[in-house]
Amino acid sequence: MPLTKAGRMAEGAFGISPLLLLLLAAVALRASTFGDPNVGGDETFYQTVGIAMHHGAVPYVDVWDRKPWGLFFLFYLITGISSAPAGYQLIATGFAAATAWIIGRIAIRWTDRQGALLAGLAYLVFLIPFQGYGGQSPVFYNLFIAAAALLVLRATPGLRKGDVDWRSHLAMLLAGIAITMKTTAFFEAAFLGLWCSTVLLTAPWAKRPPGRTIVAWALLGAAPALLIAAGYALAGYWSIYWTAMVTSNFTKSADWTSSAIRYAIMFSRMAPLLIVAVLSLPETPGNRRSFMLLWLLAAFVGVASVPHFFMHYGLPVLVPVSVASAAFLGRKWLGPIAFMVMAWFALHDSQVLDFDHARRSQAAFDELTQAIRHHDDGGPLFVFDGPHQLYTMTDKPFPTPLVFTAHLGHLMEKDVSHLSTLGEVKRVLAMRPSTIIAAPQPRQGPPNLETDNLVRAYFHAHCRRVARVDTPDWLNESIIDVWADCRTGKTASVLP
User: Fold this and answer.
1) Burial class of 311 by CB neighbour count within 10 A (0 to 12, 13 to 18, 19+)
2) Per-residue confidence band for 113, with pLDDT thresholds at 50, 70 and 90
């Protein structure tokens, strides 16, 4: 896929200035979330784990989840810089802008500067309706996949001649790192590896045996995950790691009806971008069109591979579909008009201008943490159905590795880890926690009534409600109760 002289000049021109413009756009679109301690349950959990790792916590052993280790390590690095919510939010903004810039660098191989810039902006805009306004995992690993795709495209002309250089090797390594942040990135990584392998195998003359190179690519892609697995095996935690990475993903039941509804919503929200991508196909050169269609297919397969679907699972698709839309967006008048229509569609009912949300969220957490600290008698804090970040915000240790509250209260998460869900709840209650955090009614649906009834019986028998706080996040508004003084026998609620 060699560039023309004009193409090379255009790619060189898509440098610092577009990057700065995309960074400004990313900041403008996400600024309302900066400093919000409760943007979303997933990313606040990653932050919680990252902070805990600085105090010696081992993912899966001391705090359990099924997300790959690389994601937690990334948040470990981020929280080493700053443990404040704004820390990961600002870094996530940088990742989003960098990904948009890479999208432009890819797209300018067959479009002009306008089309490339608008494609990058489209990615930033569509992150918002897909809950990518904070630090969801694809906001980070999309950069590695996009960079790998760019390197593969740059390496392809040489591969067609049988020449293999560092770019293809680095691409496989970057794709492998993406897999350590989200397992479903495997499908996009596999596509990039298969693309390079196919091109090399069909080259008229290779300067080295193709089989050896393909094996090297596969090993580079697998190396990050294999090194992590080896580390857990050598530490004696192999069975726990295997459960987290493999068996828990098959044990968890799926709600096919709600997933189908969410899939339909995903396609409806992505429809304008998909339409523009389809309109771009006739203007995209054939070999690049093949690459884009196969990349899109791989991304959609990755999304479809998860039986219990949530909206943010669609975030990886935004990278190839934004690239694919670039040719039409490069049209002199129609491109900007199409972009403005797409932007309105994506943002018209969003909260990008709700700067008061972060203030209300911070005020809620101040009230929650003050209530916990005021009634702290040195006993355990048990966040059963509430914001898990309260552990680190109050400097309280985890009473159970099942810190992510869905693992305690959601029926579909029952016994998916190496631990008995009911057994863990009984063990924590036997420790006589002095403070319990729970919503008035189960927030998880369908709830695990075994654990829910047990915890509610405990705090109604031994504790008193000392705070009831309206606690917003960017998807829901929850009422959270603080039940405290559980060791004093004061069972009367101080609130109506």
Assistant:
1) middle
2) very high
Q: What pTM did the predictor assign?
A: 0.93
Do 199 and 331 reside in the same domain of the chain? yes
Q: Residue 319 CA to chain centroid, in angstroms?
A: 14
DSSP 8-state symbol, 278: H
Q: Report d(CA 365, CA 387) in Å as an integer.
A: 9
| 407 and 263 fall within a common domain | no
pLDDT at position 81 over 80:
yes
Last residue of a domain, one of 347, 369, 396: 347
Q: Which of 347, 366, 389 is the last residue of a domain?
A: 347
pLDDT digits (tens, 9 = 90+) for 452-474: 999 999 999 999 999 999 999 88
In a shared domain, residues 328 and 373: no
Q: Are residues 252 and 371 in the same domain?
A: no
Rounded distance between C-alpha atoms, residue 180 and residue 141, angstroms = 9
Q: What is the pLDDT of residues 130-167, one digit of tens each?
A: 999 999 999 999 999 999 999 999 999 999 988 899 99
> Nearest-CA neighbor of 219 among 193, 244, 199, 196?
193
Q: How many domains does the chain have?
A: 2
Distance CA 484, CA 375 (A): 6
**334 and 370, same domain (yes or no):** no
Q: Per-residue confidence at 74, pLDDT binned at 50, 70, 90? A: very high
The b-or-e profile of 172-190 (16+ CB within 10 A means b, else e) is: bbbbbbbbbbbbbbbbbbb
CA proximity to 387, closest of 75, 38, 35, 36: 38
Residues 333 and 425 reside in one and the same domain: no
Same domain, 314 and 398: no
Q: Which residues of 379-392 are buried (b: 16+ CB within 10 A; e: fewer)?
A: bbbbbbbbbbbbbb
pLDDT in tens, 7-63: 455 556 678 999 999 999 999 999 999 999 999 889 999 999 999 999 999 999 999
Contacts of 267 (CB under 8 A, 6+ apart): 274
Structure tokens at 248: 């828990």
Q: Which residue stretches of 247-393 are H helix?
A: 248-251, 256-280, 286-304, 318-324, 326-329, 334-347, 356-374, 390-393
Task: Assess whether 88 and 109 both reside in one domain.
Answer: yes
**Of 124, 128, 84, 129, nearest to 103 (Cα)?**
124
Find the mean pLDDT for residues 341-352.
Answer: 90
